[in-house]
Specification:
With 306 residues, the protein is α/β, with parallel strands linked by helices. It is built from 12 helices and 9 strands. GO terms for molecular function: nucleic acid binding; protein-glutamine N-methyltransferase activity.
Length: 306
């Protein structure tokens, strides 16, 4: 009888062993990243920690931990699935994070990774009272357009303690995932989910703050996506020929849904030059730790008469 082939689980005993193995496999497979991590090392660390139900903020305390065989086999299965399916790690694990806050994800929604989450959760919008939203407690109504998994609506409810939040998405499938996240974070009394096309289901309601991370990827870029990005719903990415079709629609209508002192916070990726040439508006471009000129702010007064 031929000997049973050795399994990697026989030799890879510690978290450090699995980390080294995963990084090697990911590098050899030339995977693409960008769904919460940017390197093979970060991707491997996230998968191991989340796969073991450990805190994802620091791998170091666990590196020498010896794993049980079932744990090793589970992690090896995740590593192999990442290489063979090319699905982003959050889909394989059913979890993504923004600023340490967990959200459920699956193939019905784009994987959360918005700069707006960072801006809201770090207080960057307040700017010590000099930012576009100087007093978070004064915000009473927030609208999140293109909510997807509901992550930004939930973060907005956390960042603006007195606010009720309406969250709109065209995809009924995405809203099913958002419903789970709202329940997980016990936000059912503050976050209302609505299905429809942008402002259509709102019936003229007005908000102190509109936040939106709409589809803003150009057709040519979508066509050239690696497999990891093709795994996400195309409607969550595609913004027309130059990526800005939906942003244009928002700009032309948002003023009708803002209170007199309200404002619009919008993420657009790399379309700054196009918008500035096309719209005679005083865009205030806001930077985050990882972005520059990809998020703009406009007030209700700026948008009046659009």
């Amino acid at each position: 009888m031929a000997p049973t082939p050795a399994s990697p689980a026989d030799d890879l005993l510690t978290v450090r062993d699995l980390l080294r193995y995963a990084v090697s496999r990911f590098g050899a497979a030339k995977l693409a990243y960008g769904h919460g991590t940017t390197t093979a090392l970060d991707e491997a660390a996230f998968m191991l920690l989340e796969g073991l139900s450990l805190p994802i903020d620091d791998l170091a305390p666990w590196l020498e931990a010896r794993l049980t065989r079932p744990e090793r086999e589970t992690l090896l299965g995740l590593i192999e699935a990442r290489v063979t399916t090319r699905k982003p790690a959050p889909y394989l694990l059913g979890r993504a994070y923004i600023q340490g806050v967990p959200f459920r994800v699956d193939e019905r929604v784009i994987i959360p990774r918005s700069y707006l989450g960072e801006m809201m959760m770090t207080g960057a919008l307040a700017g010590d009272g000099a930012g576009p939203v100087p007093d978070p407690f004064a915000v009473e109504r927030v609208l999140d357009l293109c909510t997807g998994s509901g992550c930004l609506a939930i973060l907005a409810a956390m960042a603006f303690p007195e606010a009720s939040v309406d969250a709109v998405d065209l995809s009924s499938d995405a809203l099913e995932v958002a419903k789970l996240n709202v329940a997980d974070h016990e936000m059912g009394e503050r976050v209302r989910l609505l299905q429809g096309d942008l402002f259509a289901p709102l019936k003229g309601q007005r908000y102190d703050l509109i936040i939106t991370n709409p589809p803003y990827v150009a057709q040519g870029e979508v066509d050239a996506f690696p497999a990891e990005f093709k795994a996400e719903p195309v409607m969550a990415h595609l913004g027309g020929a130059d990526g800005l079709d939906i942003v244009r629609r928002i700009l032309r209508t948002a003023g009708d849904h803002l209170t007199p002192d309200g404002g619009l916070l919008c993420e657009i990726g790399t379309g700054r030059d196009i918008l500035e040439e096309e719209f005679d508006l005083p865009f205030l471009w806001l930077d985050s730790e990882e972005s520059e000129g990809e998020v703009f702010w406009l007030t209700a007064r700026d948008l009046a008469g659009r």
